[in-house]
Design a protein that fits this description.
By secondary structure, this protein is α+β, with helices and mostly antiparallel strands. It contains seven helices and five strands, in the order H-H-E-E-H-E-E-E-H-H-H-H. It holds the Pfam family Fer2.
Length: 224
């Protein structure tokens, strides 16, 4: 979004038993090594415990097994893809998005619904995801900042934030853009600078880039 926004000898020794060491130790070492590599492969391929998955339609049948004790299975569409996760009842939507789905563009700020950094769209309405439980969103359609653009094509509000230099540290930027796209699509919000300031007042910019944020919002008007 923002252009501001990564032991050979030892292994060799391990492959051969020490002098006088039982031969079965080598077999056990190889077995444990293969198990370890298999575990890493499973984790990186998305098959690890608790890993969310998706396709363009319904969630994969791999979730036919019951969720772990104390967890609830939740299915929703996020950024156009179906996702299914198992969460405890007290997990907030923000944490489910960031930790379970690894969509870290949505930022964790105050955790009290006061800063707006975690703003997302649920069924077309902008909400603070830190104030909503994940289990409340069965069947909902969710959009995060990662879902604004299409591939390498920036959304008009993202392009405007670049052109108007509407960010400094960038921490609030995703929430600002999610709120901006919501109010630009809401006919009830006036078009004046004052109306935009009022509608965006729930999004705090610690760096004080409000003038440029306002310019970015207004320059996007009519493009979304």
């Amino acid at each position: 979004m923002s252009n501001r926004d990564q032991s050979g000898a030892v292994r060799g020794a391990a492959d051969h038993p020490r002098k006088g060491q039982p031969a079965h130790s080598e077999s056990r070492r190889r077995f444990m090594k293969s198990v370890g590599m298999s575990s890493i492969a499973a984790a990186t391929s998305g098959a690890g415990l608790g890993q969310a998955f998706a396709d363009e339609g319904a969630p994969e049948s791999a979730t036919n097994d019951a969720p772990a004790e104390g967890k609830t299975r939740v299915t929703f569409k996020i950024n156009g893809k179906m996702k299914q996760i198992d969460v405890t009842p007290n997990v907030i939507l923000l944490d489910a998005i960031r930790d379970d789905l690894q969509l870290t563009g949505t930022k964790k700020g105050c955790d009290h619904g006061q800063c707006g950094a975690c703003t997302i769209h649920v069924n077309g309405v902008a909400i603070n995801s830190c104030l909503s439980l994940a289990v409340m969103h069965e069947g909902d359609e969710i959009t995060t900042v990662e879902g604004l653009g299409e591939g390498d094509q920036l959304h008009p509000i993202q392009q405007a934030f670049l052109e108007e230099d509407a960010y400094q540290c960038g921490y609030c930027t995703s929430g600002q853009m999610m709120s901006a796209t919501s109010i630009l699509a809401d006919d009830r919000v006036g078009t004046s600078d004052e109306a935009v300031r009022e509608a965006m007042s729930g999004n705090i910019c610690r760096c004080g880039a409000y003038k440029n944020i306002l310019a970015a919002v207004q320059s996007t008007r009519g493009k979304v």
